[in-house]
Design a protein that fits this description.
binds S-adenosylmethionine, alpha+beta, two-stranded antiparallel ribbon, CBS-domain, about 35% helix
């Protein structure tokens, strides 16, 4: 199977100029742990997770915007990538989700470890 077979197409994202607390609210409201970060043109420029928000609170309350704390070197995948390659990226980088981008760096989905788990049929 390919990434497009199991990715989640309902992507909840945020823009880099938003305040960190808006990101925190969105993470809580939508019960997700990852928000792809977009620039003003809708291109993927980073990723922010519950981990990053928590760390920002602990380390330095002065940081205000998503772009101050997001991870800029995003590890990503594409719809046509085989899922086993995507799974390796998750494991090798100790992360739990990959934004899925098209050729113009637009986010078309998100692939999480949970989606991969569904492939193996088991509920746990
Ligand atoms: N294992 C935990 C997890 O999955 O979130 C914590 C470790 S993980 C290395 C946490 C860091 O990974 C966060 O700073 C987050 O921004 C970053 N991260 C998560 N997904 C990412 C991705 N697809 N590409 C790059 N960095 C990512």
């Amino acid at each position: 199977p390919r990434v497009s077979d199991i990715m989640n197409r309902q992507v909840i994202s945020i823009t880099e100029d938003e305040e960190i607390r808006v990101a925190a609210k969105r993470l809580l409201k939508d019960e997700t742990n990852h928000l792809p970060v977009l620039d003003g043109n809708g291109a993927l420029v980073g990723i922010i997770t519950t981990y990053d928000v928590s760390k920002a609170v602990v380390n330095d309350g002065r940081l205000k915007q998503v772009k101050d704390i997001m991870t800029r070197k995003v590890i990503k995948t594409t719809p046509d990538e085989p899922v086993d390659i995507a799974a390796q990226k998750l494991e090798q980088n100790n992360i739990s989700a990959l934004p899925v981008v098209d050729a113009t760096n637009r986010v078309v989905g998100i692939l999480s470890a949970i989606d991969l788990g569904k492939l193996f049929g088991g509920r746990r």
